[in-house]
Amino acid sequence: MDLQGKAAIVTGGARGIGLAIVEELAAQGASVVIVDSGVSISGEPEQPRLAEEVSSRIDGTAAVCGDIAEVEVARNAVELSQKRFGAVDIIVNNAAIIRDAFIFKSDPGNWDAVIRTNLSGAQRLLAAATPAMREQAKTGRAPGAIVNIVSTAGIYGNFGQGAYAAAKAGLIGLTRVVAHDLARSRIRCNAVAPFAATRVTESIKPANEAQAAYKAKALQVPARYVARLVSFLASDRSAHVTGQLFGVRGREVFVFSQPRPAQRLLQGEEHLDLQALEQHFTELVTDLEAFSGDPIL
Ligand SMILES: NC(=O)c1ccc[n+]([C@@H]2O[C@H](COP(=O)([O-])OP(=O)(O)OC[C@H]3O[C@@H](n4cnc5c(N)ncnc54)[C@H](O)[C@@H]3O)[C@@H](O)[C@H]2O)c1
Questions:
Q1: Which strands sit side by side in the sheet containing 7-11, from one edge to the other?
Q2: Any idea what DSSP says for residue 222?
Q3: Considering only CA atoms, which of 70, 58, 78 is closest in space to residue 18?
Q4: Can you give the pTM of this predicted structure?
């Protein structure tokens, strides 16, 4: 029971990977506020009371039915955690939607909706929760932990996922900044790119054979492995881990390198030639192609 006495907020916690995270945190002794708007994969209203229904089945949880990108919903979640569970120790920004379109067909409304949920939603909750988390750390409570659920799409890119990948890449950037901003309080912030069978994995429309292989294999991977990594990152056992970017696919846990200059070239007055840098160019491969191999379960 790594998380006994801790209070967590998990967005998008009523299904899929978020639900697996809620179940694992609760099993490890945490109390959990589930924030979920009960929307479809693309963010259309579907089951608005879903968070309450799920919470009624899991001991030690409470529900906020709403859109995490609403400032009021984020505030309500923090207040509920404080009133019902006495603190806010753990934040998991997991809620996300997908509205794919090639850039040459992309629609501004769909773009904004994806950025709003997948990136601004995390800002709303962090802005509401981190003042309380900083105060708690000052009073001697063990410093809290934040886990942002990102995607390999934001690292590699994938066909037609401009909005989704941009939001996730933004969330990776936010992870680094939040890790810096909260370092003095010893509150940690890490990002996790998951792989797991959910309704989203089921909905993948493969663009080639490697992507079809990815889908078939991803559908074998239970979300509980993601939940175990998130639970570890939320616990005091990972008190030294912050600002890192992880991946998790079944039993495999990856740490990703983060972009740093790989090679330097000095410009002269003559015609610029990048040949000296070419050995460090990055192959243009989608995430689904890069991870189309067999998962280890
Ligand atoms: N499934 C995978 O293999 C995979 C791969 C890469 C990244 N991810 C990421 O993992 C996370 C979970 O994905 P999933 O596959 O479980 O998705 P899912 O669609 O099954 O679940 C998402 C949940 O978030 C909720 N939600 C959506 N918008 C919300 C909002 N504005 N406010 C509150 N709740 C909201 C939905 O109602 C739903 O319950 C997402 O961040 C996703 O981008 C998943």
A1: 61-65, 31-36, 7-11, 90-93, 145-149, 188-195, 245-249, 252-255
A2: -
A3: 58
A4: 0.98
**Are 54 and 19 a contacting pair, CB within 8 Å?**
yes
Distance 56 CA to ligand 1 centre (A): 20
Helix (H, G, I), strand (E, B) or coil at 268: coil
Is the CB of 165 inside a 6 Å radius of any atom of ligand 1?
no
DSSP 29-84: T-EEEEEE--B-TTS-B--TTHHHHHHHHSTTEEEEES-TTSHHHHHHHHHHHHHH
Task: Say how many CA atoms lie within 13 Å of 186 toward its Cβ.
Answer: 13
Look up residue 120 and give its DSSP letter: I
Pocket perturbation via mutation, ligand 1, pick of 37, 44, 172, 203 by most ligand atoms within 8 A of CB: 37
What is the 8-class DSSP label of residue 101?
B
> What token pair was written down for 38?
């009960």
- The per-residue pLDDT string of the chain (297 residues; one tens digit each, 9 = 90 and over) reads 899 999 999 999 999 999 999 999 999 999 999 999 999 999 999 999 999 999 999 999 999 999 999 999 999 999 999 999 999 999 999 999 999 999 999 999 999 999 999 999 999 999 999 999 999 999 999 999 999 999 999 999 999 999 999 999 999 999 999 999 999 999 999 999 999 999 999 999 898 998 899 899 999 999 999 999 999 999 999 999 999 999 999 999 999 999 999 999 999 999 999 999 999 999 999 999 999 999 999
The pair of three-digit structure tokens given for residue 118, joined into one six-digit string: 């997948």
